[in-house]
Design goal:
Elements: H1 7-26, E1 36-40, E2 46-50, E3 64-68, H2 86-95, E4 101-105, H3 108-116, H4 125-130, E5 135-138, H5 146-155, E6 163-166, E7 170-175, H6 178-200
Parallel strand pairs: 5-6
Antiparallel strand pairs: 1-2, 1-4, 2-3, 4-7, 6-7
């Protein structure tokens, strides 16, 4: 490591990453082994990210990997492989020092808008308060690719942006910490679900 990370602090952050991953899974915001989360380790230039191939609802502390801000694994021994989406995670952290956590999920209603390559209308007060004018639509690119990382990084270059829908893919939200980032994912999925239900009731959205 470039600088030692306090073990007790690292264990605490691993535990929080697992806790938030389990919450996202319990809410049905991510199927199978898809989705990934990451968090800055306070007092260091490192992030923890979900390992590849593990379902969020089944994660343990052993399914997290310590990286530097270039996306390199910095743990000793034989840690698991990090998520292939680490490239866009680090692209966000490099551009946004205010971001303490990144959450990437595949919530079903938001994914419907992702397939349609559209943002959901912000029909509720909560959606307008937390997401309106702060949500970007990112053009499609292969999962895990440098192209996707560049597109996501560019979208979050704007300090006002807190959420994004990745066309044909899923969602990305950021926050000062993991819970804040997850709450935005929940608000984004709620906005998408509300828009779809309003349309079913004969309203004008989406």
């Amino acid at each position: 490591m470039d600088a030692p990370v306090e073990r007790s602090r690292l264990d605490e952050v691993r535990g929080l990453l697992v806790e938030v991953a389990h919450r996202a899974s319990m809410q049905g915001l991510v199927p199978g082994t898809s989705g990934n989360l990451s968090v800055r380790v306070p007092g260091s230039d490192h992030i923890l990210i979900k390992a590849t191939g593990r379902a969020l609802g089944e994660m343990t502390a052993a399914d997290t990997v310590l990286l530097d801000l270039d996306g390199n694994v910095v743990e000793r021994g034989t840690p698991p492989r990090p998520s292939k989406e680490r490239l866009f995670h680090v692209a966000i952290y490099q551009r946004r020092p205010d971001v303490g956590a990144v959450v990437h999920l595949h919530p079903p209603y938001a994914v419907a808008f992702a397939v349609a390559r559209r943002l959901p209308p912000m029909l509720t007060g909560a959606a307008r308060a937390f997401l309106e004018g702060r949500t970007a639509l990112v053009a499609p690119a292969p999962s895990g690719s440098p192209q996707l990382a560049a597109l996501v990084g560019d979208a979050f270059q704007d300090p006002a942006v807190r959420a994004a829908i990745l066309a044909e893919h899923g969602t990305v939200t950021v926050g000062s910490d993991l819970r804040a980032a997850l709450y935005l994912s929940e608000y984004l999925e709620d906005a998408a679900r509300t828009a779809c239900l309003v349309r079913l009731l004969g309203g004008q959205a989406p």
